[in-house]
Design brief:
With 105 residues, the protein is of the alpha+beta class. It has one domain: 3-Layer(aba) Sandwich (Aminopeptidase). A hairpin with a 2-residue loop joins strand 4 and strand 5. The two termini are 24 Å apart.
Length: 105
């Protein structure tokens, strides 16, 4: 696994990371996270020329794991942390999403 350009505590692939979409409880289940994630992926693909998007979650967060799978992310690694983020439970999952040119995220 190559290491991101900036010094990091945990080995991580270099590239774009999509983190931190949190939807207020009242609005969950309405497609808000999907819309924001799709917009982010399309912008990275079309405007930044990115071909891949990474994300990571705690191994103890099954809701986020399912969301990543539903959005088309593939699990590519497990570790105590990624970039400079560690997990309280001691294990997280790194995901990767291919951003295909000319297609939706």
């Amino acid at each position: 696994m190559d290491t991101a350009a900036a010094p990091v505590k945990f080995p991580s692939p270099s590239g774009w990371y999509g983190l931190g979409i949190i939807v207020q409880k009242l609005y969950r289940g309405r497609g808000v996270a999907r819309a924001l994630s799709d917009f982010r992926a399309a912008w990275l693909r079309d405007e930044a020329g990115a071909d891949r998007l990474y994300s990571f979650v705690s191994a103890e967060n099954p809701v986020s794991q399912k969301m990543h799978a539903d959005f088309g992310f593939q699990a590519v690694a497990e570790g105590a942390g990624f970039l400079n983020v560690s997990f309280d439970c001691g294990r997280g999952i790194l995901y990767s999403l291919e951003l295909k040119q000319g297609k939706g995220p």
